[in-house]
Amino acid sequence: MTKLKITVGTMDELAERTRDRLEAIESGADPEDLDDVQPELRFESYGELFDLLSAQRIELLEAIAAHDPESIRAASELVERDYKTVHRQLSELVELGVVEWADAGPGTAKQPRFPYDGLEIDIDLVDDERPDPAAA
């Protein structure tokens, strides 16, 4: 498994990075040798990022990763929160690709799984495209 990389930036930046990686592969680079091979979730604003990484959601992710609950109800009991709230949060996390539902047969409970070793948050505080105000 690997860590899920979470970044903040525009989708244009992600598309440019993807194009650069594809060009490197087409020119003969081994994809395994390229850095940032890990899956990435990109938000366009810090507000979106902080909505995902609220204290409640981090606690829920930790509980799922540590205890491997068999159902949404079991997950809600682990974090001592209302079933509906946990169901909504898990559904949002599944939609983003942070959590997945384990394969379960028809009529069985949904089993949330955290398919990564952890989260890696990458925030560039300096934009290389903007001029340095100290140099002005």
Structure, described:
It contains five helices and five strands. The chain has helices at 11-26, 46-52, 55-67, 72-78, 83-96, and strands spanning 3-8, 40-43, 100-101, 112-113, 118-122. The strands form two sheets. Strands 2-1-5 form a three-stranded parallel beta sheet. Helix 4 (72-78) crosses helix 5 (83-96).
Computed Rg: 18 Å
Ends apart, CA distance between termini: 46 Å
- Inertia-based shape: globular
Q: What is the N-to-C order of secondary-structure elements (H for helix, E for strand)?
A: EHEHHHHEEE
Percent strand equals: 5-15%
> Helical percent range?
40-55%
Q: Would you identify the regions where 5 or more consecutive residues have pLDDT less than 50?
A: none
Q: DSSP helix count?
A: 5
Number of strands: 5
Could you list some keywords that capture this structure?
136 residues, 42% helix, 14% strand, two-stranded antiparallel sheet, alpha/beta
Summarize the structure.
The protein is α/β, with parallel strands linked by helices and 136 residues long.
Indicate the topology:
Layout: E1 3-8, H1 11-26, E2 40-43, H2 46-52, H3 55-67, H4 72-78, H5 83-96, E3 100-101, E4 112-113, E5 118-122
Parallel strand pairs: 1-2, 1-5
Antiparallel strand pairs: 3-4
Helix pairs in contact: 4-5
